[in-house]
Amino acid sequence: MMRPVRRFVLSAVPGVASAVPLALATGVLAAGPAPAAGVASAPPSLPGAVVAGSAFDDDADLPAHADDVVDYTLHATLDPIAHTVHGEGTISWRNASARPVRELWLHLYLNAFKNERSAFLRERVGGRGSDTPEDWGFIDVRRLALHDAGAAPVDLWPGAELHRPGDEDETDARVPLPRDVAPGETIALDVVFDDKLPIVIERTGYRDTFHMVGQWFPKIARLEADGTFAHFPFHHLAEFYADFGSYDVTLDVPEAYVVGATGALVESRVAAGRRIERHTQSDVHDFAWTAWDRWQAARERIGAVDVTLLYPPGFAHLAERELATLRFALPYFSSRYGRYPYPVLTVAHPQEDVGEAGGMEYPTFITSGGSWLTPPEVLAPEIVTIHELGHQWFYGMVATHELAWPFLDEGINQFAEVDGMAAWRGEGTALNLAGLTVSDAAINAVTSNFGVHDEPVAQPANAFTSGANYGRLVYARTASLLETMARVYGREAVLRALGRYARRFRFAHPGPPELLSVFGEVLGARAADTIRTALFDKGWVDYVVDGVWTERARRPAGVFDREAAADGGASGATSAAPSRERIEPGEAQGGQWENAVAIRRRGTLSFPVDVELTLADGTTRRERWDGEGEYKRISWTGPVALRGVVVDPDDRVMIDYNLENNRGSVAGEGGGAPRTLERATYVMQLALQAIAP
Amino acid sequence: MNDYRAAMAAPEDFAEGTRRSGDLVLVTNGAMCARRHPWAIVGLWAWQSALALLASGPAASLVGSAYGRDPRGDGALWDAGGHALLDMLWHDAHGISVLGRATALALAVALVAGLVPLAALMVAMAYASRDRRPAGLVRSVAAALRAFGAFAVLLFVFGVAEALVAGAGVGAAKVTELATHASLGEASAQLVAGAAGALFLVGASTVGVAHDLARAAVVRFQVSGLRGARMGARAFAAAPVRMWWSWAWRAGAAAAPVAAVAAAATGMGGRGGVALVLLAVLHQAVVVSRVALRASWLGRALRSVDATLKYPA
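YS: structure for the whole thing
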């Protein structure tokens, strides 16, 4: 989802904040980080060092399908008046771990909106989803029956534990099983449930006839290889982590309604005033849908993908902008991170009164957002669209644990967004107005420095002390770090690393070690260590011009003994007394200038940087500092005086904490602020004419 | 030389010679126009420029302290991508906040103090010296200072009226959107709401036109603010469409050079040197042209009240 605005403090999961850095202190390429208490253990999919291999630099070795662990076959009936969904169907689930399982954990995330004692509503962190719902939402499971061959179905639901002692949250249910499910064994469950949708909150719910239906069915938590379930309540800042599988969902809505959903539409009919659509999709880990009687639809085939864009009346121009975004981004992301494997993609653009439904990702189904009045100079719709599309890779196919490692999901994807927008639109990727361009990368870079000293990037979502810091660090810091790596070490190298990671771990559940291993492999140990420090140790950097000097080269003053004009002692006399030369202070030396600059590197990160020296004759020359050490002095004597210096003139180190101190001049030689004075005066003149005629 | 009237229009002024207007006499109706008083236009531009320079100086100083040490100066703030600009907005947020408040205060002071040069411009257009020479700076300002009280009353009365109409427009737009949202959908509902709000904006602009006519009445007839307000309303009522259009085309014309030069500034970006000088010249040309158009309208207002109204008994 797009970055939220957060303001309240979250209670961290005990032990998480301390456990993660400690575990990683031994080296990122050793073992995976310690699991977060209350959070599923970090996926041990590939323990130890991982070599992704150059084979994954193209699509030749892409896995064709995910390991199909859980299949849902559901029939959902929408009542648009009562805003309810009646669901029933079957769940086929396989124990993909190496150990027998005697319980199931079900995520009932619609209960996040049931009352103010849910974990979600207790963690009000600001931004969307933080207000008390205008109408409550919840899910009632009516039946969850185990089908054993040759035996009558056994309803497991009466024995379910909906919440833990002392905690009224009902989003994470434990269901005891009557027997062990052996490793590799598949069980079948009948399920019947009823949803009451809330007024749209945090991407799900209704308003009037609009319905966005996400987190709407009982969903089995992911089972890790060690036989533990990665179950957790619906937290305000994170919710996704599940096994791959196939979804076969039949949606039953009023005839006048238009449906958008995960997966391909394989069957559609109208009967008795109802529209019945069947959507199927394999190799995914979630299913969401929308139904509204006002959706307009634009359809286009982009490459091998049938794209449907749903938009409200009057939003056709925005739909076209978003389609244009997809025309670029679908092939671009496919080339960078592996081909998009699904036959369909649906984008729904909700109008502003249901804005909380916007900016969200589900497999093959994303939501964008923005006012129909958004001018073309403001690229917010494009950014939201490209961001949510990027999630098809970083969340969808590379199915990381969003709660445990949100930076692997939102952070990596934020970089994909920044890189994609820059590749498409150049520097004006957020604003391009009246000569002023503001890039998505710059916004992220500045935002990323807000909370850099507060807490690490790499920690569980619910360990962040505020939602604001979550946004700054998980989204912006990760993206800006990778953008810095791309500008310093080469964009192609960074994209090759990310592409290798995305392809190698397609349809898998990697963790930080896998990511860092690939970066080490492609960019080298120093780069990987920089990333590790930045993510796990609050790494930061600030280059500072410490001093700039220039002065006429002078002969050293004082009294100097000079060798006498020796005759080689041929005279046989004692050595001639040396002549003495007295040089007065300030005596010039041939019109030369002695120039020097001193540069300091503060912080725990280091990057090689250019140092641009501007001379008094207007020429410039560059020196390279490898960034090692904390101090660098550059001095030389030459025919031209030094005027000033700029560290990192090409703006490569995007996470530099303060750009103002990257520059310096000898006294009186700075460029001042003439442009600001001119424009500010003009603007003030216009303002005076407007308000004080 | 028949531009000058034989006598002042105000009987008491005529009777007492210079009691209220010094040595000034009213010019003929046709002579009340801006193009005959270029120096008055320059004077108002100079006033605005001096104030603007004073108000923008601290902003330039702030930026100078942040980027003045760069060999390119503040050119980095215009670099593609805006990284330095955003970084400065963050690091200097407190200073910028103070600047914002100080600027708001400066504009508030200018709103009131600016009545004097405005009145002086109108006096310069409406009056001449007894020797049929332009009124001149000193006499125009002196007369403007005498009209300041009346202008201030008008500013309050019409300012409140304009705010009320504009506020009603915002309310009407919101109510319209709420009422039509369900039936029309968001985009259409907001379009209709915008149209409803625009009607009120036109209403607010008519109040502004009446405001200027009232100012013209104060200058022309040397009456109090409240009496000037009534006279301005009467002058507007006499030819509302013609008056509004006379103002509106000039207001529209004044917006055009702003847009045109904004496009030019886009091309120039953050360049310094000659390009910056050229941009400054273009910007000042825009400001002067806007002052001239404003003066043109005020001359039209003076002629209108002069032709329409009689001196109140």
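YS: worth flagging: Residues 58 and 99 of chain B are 7 Å apart (CA to CA).
IM: good catch. Also The two ends of chain B are 30 Å apart (CA to CA).
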